[in-house]
Amino acid sequence: MKSSRLLLALLAFGAITASAQEKVLNLYSARHYQTDEALYANFTRQTGIRINRIEAKEDELLERIRNEGANSPADIFLTVDAARLAKADELGLFAAVKSKTLEQRIPASLRSPDWFAFSTRARVIVANKDTVKAGDVQNYEDLASPKLKGKVCSRSGSHPYNISLMAALIAHMGEAKAEEWARGVVANFARAPKGGDTDQIKSVAAGECGVAVSNSYYLARLLRSEKPEDRRMMERVSIIWPNQNSFGTHINISGGGMLKTAPNKESAVKFLEYLASDDAQRYFADGNNEWPAVASVVVKNPALEAMGKFKADSLPVATLAKNAVAAQRIYDRAGWK
Ligand code: FE
């Protein structure tokens, strides 16, 4: 038995020396886009750091990191939506990252001390061209107008995309007005909330709903779709950039941060800096039809170009994160299930 124990010890020693030579990065990601493969391969090519990637749903990954505790192998947590990053932050999972590169490249409104946004998306209004008059919906506020009685469709009020939208409205109009708005929208519902953003777009195109809100990349995806029925569907809806004469269209982000328990901190910071590089920004944004967080990076994307230019809300994403809990409470009180 002694010799087999020795063999195990030798094997263990072998494993340790191998890992000491090879630099790795353990990435927990809630992004699942095929184009991200090229993004990660490019990092390994540039730095020699191998990426071990675990992909799962946001909540599963957060649960896993918490369960793994101090022994977690995770270096980086990547996800979408400020509300979700706020949740990870609130759980105390992120470590503060000081990096000149990140400070210079990522605008201050798109980062917190603990996490960074790498791409942005807009939450726009889609309307059925036949059943909703163009002038009737120009702002988020209009979704609560009696003119749209029985015409508004929505996904759940508990979904992070809607939580972050509410968080922005709280910042702009205060909690009381934001709650009044939520009650007005609920009173206008065509049906109980269900489905994702793409389902809302489909229902608007089919005429089951008059208006809905959706993240911009779902619209871009349908506009760029190879299926003719998707493109035909898009001909039946108009895309409205809300609040162009006031605070601008609500913007959310995709981003990530380094975990407090990260075993490979140097690789982790390198990876975050890489995500802010020109190359990575293009992969990161164009792969999912988003806009780069780094202002100087130009993305050539026909669908985004077709959607046009717009005034984006300049609210810092950290504010969205801060208002997330109040936002959920308002949806609950307003009965936006
Ligand atoms: Fe999404």
Summarize the helices and strands and which ones pair or pack.
Layout: H1 2-21, E1 24-29, H2 36-47, E2 50-55, H3 58-68, E3 76-80, H4 82-90, H5 100-105, E4 116-128, H6 160-187, H7 197-206, E5 211-215, H8 216-223, H9 228-235, E6 237-240, E7 251-258, H10 265-275, H11 278-286, E8 291-292, H12 302-307, H13 317-322, H14 324-334
Parallel strand pairs: 1-2, 1-3
Antiparallel strand pairs: 3-7, 4-5, 4-6, 4-7, 4-8
Helix pairs in contact: 2-11, 6-14
The structure holds fe (iii) ion.
Descriptive account of the structure:
With 337 residues, the protein is of the alpha+beta class. The chain folds into 2 domains: 24-119 and 252-304, Periplasmic binding protein-like II (D-Maltodextrin-Binding Protein, domain 2); 122-250 and 312-334, Periplasmic binding protein-like II (D-Maltodextrin-Binding Protein, domain 2, 3-Layer(aba) Sandwich), CATH 3.40.190. It is built from 14 helices and 8 strands. It has helices at residues 2-21, 36-47, 58-68, 82-90, 100-105, 160-187, 197-206, 216-223, 228-235, 265-275, 278-286, 302-307, 317-322, 324-334, and strands spanning 24-29, 50-55, 76-80, 116-128, 211-215, 237-240, 251-258, 291-292. Strands 1, 2, 3, 4, 5, 6, 7 and 8 form an 8-stranded mixed beta sheet that branches. Helix 2 (36-47) runs antiparallel to helix 11 and helix 6 (160-187) runs parallel beside helix 14 (324-334). The termini are far apart.
